[in-house]
Amino acid sequence: MKSLTIRNLSKTYFDVHAGANVTAVRDMSLEVPAGEFVSIVGPSGCGKTTLLNMIAGFIPHTEGEITVGGQPVKGPGPDRGVVFQSWALFPWRTVLDNVAFGPKMRGVGRAEREKIAHDYLALAKLSHAAGRYPNELSGGMQQRVGVVRALANEPDVLLMDEPFASVDAQTRMTLQEELTRIWEQKRPTVIFITHDVAEAVFLGNRVVALSKGRVLEEIAVDLPRPRVWDELNEDGRFKALCGRVLQLVRSA
Ligand SMILES: Nc1ncnc2c1ncn2[C@@H]1O[C@H](COP(=O)(O)OP(=O)(O)OP(=O)(O)O)[C@@H](O)[C@H]1O
């Protein structure tokens, strides 16, 4: 697993509609030690997705530096896995082949990549769906497969942009519990963007609140793990942390 360092990072877009520059990320610095789970919250337009896209190497930054394991990010790479809200599985491949696709691209042989895929599907309690096609799965299951597919690449850094936003509340809670469980076993470094304050606190070791392209405040989440909703729903510390993060987001 690798650390992530963001130093004095800025991103300015040229907005063709307004005919002017827009600064989406402004002199931002953030240190994420290897294996940490960081949740990122902030109001719409504060630069969350821009930040994630720069870490992924999908878009260039204007100023500053991003390093993963000490190496500067110059473009996309297998050390960083990305999961978006729209999961876009390959519809013509089974669940197993979707999950095995990343290892296949890395040149892993069939037997080995299928073993990797089976292991990750088992971790996410999806073994029964291995032979199905995406259109035979519910939205929540597709979302889980999307997460598992990213994990099967064993990235050092996992970048997640509101991956559970479009599933029902019940499924979302299950996905959150599964993600924390898998993270505890594999310990990738995670950057998780969400608008959901309770989700940010439930998942993270730390919640970073952004405002207008800058880090507004960082809040350590010292709740014990494993975290399960039945316990945390009643936990005074959890509620207090959610209250604090909500206040920050509203003031941002
Ligand atoms: N390709 C682009 N061209 C011009 N401006 C852009 C572009 N992408 C984003 N922006 C602007 O940059 C700012 C930050 O956008 P970004 O999508 O990173 O915010 P966000 O925090 O992820 O928002 P949301 O929570 O609504 O997804 C916004 O003002 C947005 O309009």
From TrEMBL:
Residues 4-237 form the ABC transporter domain. InterPro entries: AAA+_ATPase, ABC_transporter-like_ATP-bd, ABC_transporter-like_CS, ABC_transporter_ATP-bind, P-loop_NTPase. The keyword Chaperone does not apply. Keywords: ATP-binding, Cell membrane, Membrane, Nucleotide-binding, Transport. SUPFAM superfamilies: P-loop containing nucleoside triphosphate hydrolases (SSF52540). GO terms for molecular function: ATP binding; ATP hydrolysis activity. The keyword Lipid metabolism does not apply. Coiled coil: none annotated. Belongs to the ABC transporter superfamily. This is ABC transporter ATP-binding protein. It comes from Rhodoferax koreensis.
